[in-house]
Each structure stands twice: as structure tokens, then as C-alpha cells.
Amino acid sequence: xxxxxxxxxxxxxxxxxxxxxxxxxWRMCAAYCIPRQYSRWQxxxxxxxxxxxxxxxxxxxxxxxxxLPKYIAILERIATPQAQRWHKLQASTPELRKIKxxxxxxxxxxxxxxxxxxxxxxxxxxASTQTYGALGVYGTAPLYVAQREKTALSGSGFxxxxxxxxxxxxxxxxxxxxxxxxxxxxxTARQFRRKFPQLVGKEPKSVKMEWDTQKPSDTKKHKFLHVxxxxxxxxxxxxxxxxxxxxxxxxxxDDKEYVxxxxxxxxxxxxxxxxxxxxxxxxxxxxxxxxxxALGSLNQMKKTVLKQGHKAVDPVLxxxxxxxxxxxxxxxxxxxxxxxxxxxxxxxxxxxxxxxRVAEALVASERDDVNDSFFVTLFQIxxxxxxMTATEVVERISEKASLISPTQGFLQSEMLGxxxxxxxxxxxxxxxxxxxxxxxxxxxxxxxxxxTSPWAKGQYAEEISGFMRAFDFAARAxxxxxxxxxxxPFKLEVAIPEMAQRFAAPERWxxxxxxxxxxxxxxxxxxxxxxxxQNAAGLGSAAKAVTEAQSGAQPK
Length: 556
Description:
Elements: H1 5-33, H2 63-79, E1 87-91, H3 94-97, H4 100-118, H5 124-137, E2 143-148, E3 157-162, E4 168-172, E5 178-187, H6 189-195, H7 205-211, E6 222-230, E7 246-252, E8 257-265, E9 270-271, H8 287-290, H9 292-313, E10 317-319, E11 348-350, H10 356-373, H11 381-384, H12 390-430, H13 438-442, E12 447-451, H14 454-481, H15 492-502, H16 513-553
Antiparallel strand pairs: 1-12, 2-3, 2-9, 4-5, 5-6, 6-7, 7-8, 10-11
Helix pairs in contact: 1-9, 2-5, 9-10, 12-14
């Protein structure tokens, strides 16, 4: 049952009003870092062709524009590197993780997720790249994760879509989590029929009027609203859509009427990753917003430097006021009589255009501030210091990991984790998830996400490195003392499998406990056989010695 439409639209308008406090900063961030989106903030209609002319009136420096792609690459590297498996699933209890077939099930489930994401029609890489760009500019990046409907040209699967922040408004609960999402979009009458083929002949009033004209317009847009909100009548035992905690619906805004059928979701398909959030702020605070003072002053400085550079190349001329030089000819090769006096002194002089070194220093300082905000300078350390020792490299990498870890934490909690949860729900609904073993079914199917990107592995590197240093010290002590007792406290049978797990080694490379026990038993049997052979050889040598001694003791 649809909620009251007036209540939904009132909440939508309240969300618009609350978000308006952020939009001025977002427009300026767009102008300095992604100018093609600036014009879209100036209008409610979708801009089919980006207009970059407006930002050019005040954006004179490209530092923000050049820093943003590097920030996107950095986030992709620490969160979702394309050439690597950036996460794995595992059982939620240590007892289940010890069972080989349980580990293999979660590995197969992880592999299925990456197969679905890798489908070109899913557009995961495109959507994630656009999401990271929006995080860099706005600090909030709506991402739609849903099932792709089966068509004559493609099968069903996953669909990822990055939504432009201008069109999205949110509500959050008292814990700071996003609960309700309002997304505006526009359709022509023809596009409406393609999106909602089941509603042909049942269009909203404004769309029907347009379609019934002699020639429906392909430029006139009609505004719609997609709303996903927690269901007030949620009943997990119901056999209707009320068993789904989230309700979805479409609304024709101008007509104030619902479009199509009610939707039901197990979780909100709109994921709203944010960076640098505060407890009382529904929207994030982006690197571009942090650098906004530097971006503003940098562009003003660049404007001044350009003016001064123009004056230096084509300087203002100072001339003696005697009426002779009033018609000074500045063309190449021109002759200006009266430019010097009878004694050869120059009567025309260029005006000093200022000190460029000071301007360059100020501009460089502001550029450093901008690049620091986008993490660019962190990744220039190794290139600028190629002579560093291995120890220094490790320390620098550790420093970078600690500086990026807050952003990595935001991504894991508000983007990557929720995406995995949503994907597992869709796998279940599509009926293509691997069959779980009985142990997993009995435990309720609980799981944990272990992140395995290079930077996530850095979280485990310190304790693993500490263990290895301690073990190496104990091994050297045992060698010096000729006593293996310093190695006794180390549980290698526990540490080595956990290291392999944290470094995301495939399960097919690691045997179960029975496999390890079989190798240990075979090794023990081999050692016993060798010992028996050595004992037999020793007994033979002793018997021979006794025989020789006895024969030598007899009288001749």
C-alpha cells in the first residue's frame, strides 16, 4: 500500500531545503575541479550538453581539475583495484573457518560476486570511478545498485549507476545512517513509455496529454521522483511486499500521482558513500571543500599573474610629454621619430610589471595545499626520493597508509560493505548463489567481509611483520645456543594459515587439517624408517666389530 503522497512530497521538499545550505560550495567545487558539471547546478533540467563557459569567468587555474583524476586513481587503488580481488568473504565464526568446505563455499561465493561485477553491462568500473570523482568534489556520491532486467538483447544481472548529487536528497536517522533517498529524474513522453511499458495507456496526465498531441515532443521533459524509504507496515512473516523492510515508489511530481506498482527491497538499493562526515551533517565534506579557500585564492592569483604576464610581454609604455610621441607606432619594424632626444637619451620606457618570483612562490604554495587535500603529494614521495633504503620505503608506505586510513574506513563502512550486502541479496533473488554446506545453513549463513586490497593488507602487515621479526630473532638465538627451546612459544601451525588467509591466498592452494595431518604422518613414517635403517646399520657395524675382536683374540 502506497504511503500518503502529500506526506512523501512534504518530506521531499524538506530534504531539498536542508540540502540547499551545501549547494553554493558544491557549485564552486564543481567550477574548480569538474567544470562540465557547473552548468548543471544552475538549472533543474538535465543538461544535455555541458556548458563550460560560465566557470571560465573565474576559474583560471587547472590544479583542481588535474588533481581530481589522481584522487580517483588513489581511491581505486586503496578500495577496488581492477586487477585484484579486493575483498573475500569468510564465515563469521572462527569454528566454521577451520572447515575446508566452508572456506571453499565462501571463496566460490566471492568469485561469483566478481563475475557479476565484471559483466560489461553491469558497469561496475564506470560507476565506481564516477563515485570516487563525486566523493572528491562533493564528499557525497549516491550509487544505485540493482538487478538488471532481462531484455531481448541481454540477460539479467547486476546494474551499478552513479547518480548525480544534484538530483538526490536524503534523510538520515539519529545514528547518522541514511534511511530515505529521493532521486529526481526527467523523461520525455517517449522515454516514459520505454521505461514503463506496462503503463502504456495509463500514463500520468501530463505525459498522456503530450503523447496524445499530433507530434509528441522529444525535448519536453517531465519530472519524476523515485523514493526508497523504510516501510512503516513491515511484517517479516507476510507473504506480500510488506515482508520487505524498504518500500520503493515512483511519483510524477507535477501531477502529484504515483506511477506504476509499489516496490519492495530487502535493503536500500541506493548506497550513499560519504567522506569526512560529522555527527550532525547528512552530507560529507570533500577534499575539494577542504581545499576551497586555496582553490579560490589560487585562481585569483593565476588571474593576476596572467594579467601581469600580458603586461610583461606587451608592456605599458611611458613617454616624454612633449607632443612628439603622441602617435607612437608599436608595429614591428616601425620607426618612431622623437623617441630619443638630441643627446641619445631614451624618451620611451616600459612600465615595470612587478616581481614574478613572489607570484610564483605564492601560486606554488596554494597548489601544494590543493594537492595535499587530494592525497597527490603522498604518492610523489617515492618518485622524488629514489635513493631511499628499503627500511625508509617501508616507513614511508606505513605513513601513507595511516594518512589514508580514515578515507579507507569511510569507503568500507559506507560503500564497499553495503554494496556487498546488497549484491548477496540479489544473488539470492536471482537464484545463482552457490549452494551452502550444511554447517553454513545450520549457522544461519553469517559472513564477514575481509578486505584484501593492497592498502587493506597494510592493516595486517604490522602484526605479521612483528611476528616474523620475533621468530627470526628466536631462530638466530636457537642457532647460537644450539638449543631449539626459543622457538617453542611460536604456534606456526596457527600463524601460517592465518597469514595465508589475510593475504587472500586461494583456498585451493591450502589443504585442510586432514591433508596437513597426512603429510605429518608420512613425514613421521619416513623419519622412523630412516631411523630404523640407521639403527640397523649401527647394529651391523657393532656385530662386525665384535666378530673381528673375537677372531683376533684366538691363539695362533
